[in-house]
Amino acid sequence: MNVKRLQPSLKFRSAAAAAALAASAVGFVAVSAPAQAASSKGCAGGGFQVLGQAGEFDGTVAAPGSRFLVQGKYVRFEVDPANFAIHNYAFTGAANELDITGGRATPVFASKIPDHRGLVLNSAITLEVKDEEVALLRNGTGGLTMKIQAKDCAQGGIFQMEPERGDAAATRIVHRLAAGAFYFDNADFRARLGQFLGSACTSVETGPPSQFCVQVRPRVNIGNNVSAEFVVRDSAQVAERVPQPACGPDFSNNLGLPETRDHCGGMSVWDVASGGRMGFVTGEDSVEVANPPTDCVQDCQAENQVRGRLAVLGFPFPVPDGSRLAPRTSTDGLDAPLTPLP
Q: What secondary structure, in 3-state letters, does 249-265 show?
């Protein structure tokens, strides 16, 4: 079952709200229940403590001089107030029927670091804490704004970061995984490449493609060696991954579908449009067959939201060695020209 995806309800909503994607299937593909129904279970008892605030808070707080902790029941992470980089994002392993960690404290990201290229965050922090959600915002020089939104849930769409700049240029964000996590090419998706799956499909071979009938494409996920249900996926809106040619292995297909190429095993580099967003989804949300989110950077609505109508393909555990991307890191791509984005 899926936890409801991150749908910002706080007053300073992300301009690029995540496309909501739930799950259903054609044939023998697993079917998940509606996302709304699962949300209360996956987030039961969730809530954050941050900068001395918990329960419900809506206001501003002084920015501390060093990293501060965002502590929830199910997830925790640190924020660097200087640039709103994320450090040491992890699941706590707290008990929940939708737990994907096997009850273990499970690190996911070592860091998610944006490069503001000379612009500086210098305002107080706007903070809202409500139920299982937290939202933080800080402004800076040159029209710079950084927003972070998170949900304290056992799985689902639970995090996103949104940069905005006065010059409307892209922001490069570098993800580095925690030591026990790795990127892999999902073999369960590769086994069904090109098929059309979803509640609206009349044919696995031809679809026809629609909102609820989606062609299976290659899928890169994040896994680990200890939790059989732990699976994560980078989730981008108006953002592009920067290739790192020194990394692989590279995969290919004869269907003309975009492929898994130039991707390291422990890091990824992304160029995010001003007003775009970079987040991640976990659990079944990360292994469903869904259309990509629409390109939107202002006053976006969750028009992509679907419930109970998309296919969930899962992933192999343990992940085969041949599916794991390597080497773990590379400097390739870090100094590449910024990707032109709308």
A: CCCCCCCCCCCCCCCCC
Distance from C-alpha of 163 to C-alpha of 101, rounded to nearest angstrom: 30
Strands 156-164 and 171-177, by their bridges, are unpaired
Note whether residue 338 is domain-resident.
Answer: no
Would residue 342 count as lying in a domain?
no
Q: What is the pTM of this model?
A: 0.88
Single-letter code of the amino acid located at 339: T
Q: φ and ψ at 316, to 5 degrees?
A: -80, 145
- Model confidence pLDDT, tens digit, residues 284-342: 999 999 998 766 665 554 444 555 799 999 999 999 999 999 999 999 999 999 999 87
| 328 within domain boundaries | no
How many domains are there within the chain? Answer: 1
In single-letter form, the type of residue at position 283 comes to G
Q: Residues 118-170: pLDDT tens digits?
A: 999 999 999 999 999 999 999 999 999 999 999 999 999 999 999 999 999 99
CA gyration radius, the chain: 19
At 261, is the pLDDT very low, low, confident or very high (cuts 50, 70, 90)? very high
CB-side neighbour CA atoms (13 Å) of 302: 17
Q: Are 197 and 26 in contact (CB under 8 A)?
A: yes
Tell me the C-alpha distance between 326 and 274, whole Å: 30
Is there a contact between 10 and 130 (Cβ–Cβ < 8 Å)? yes
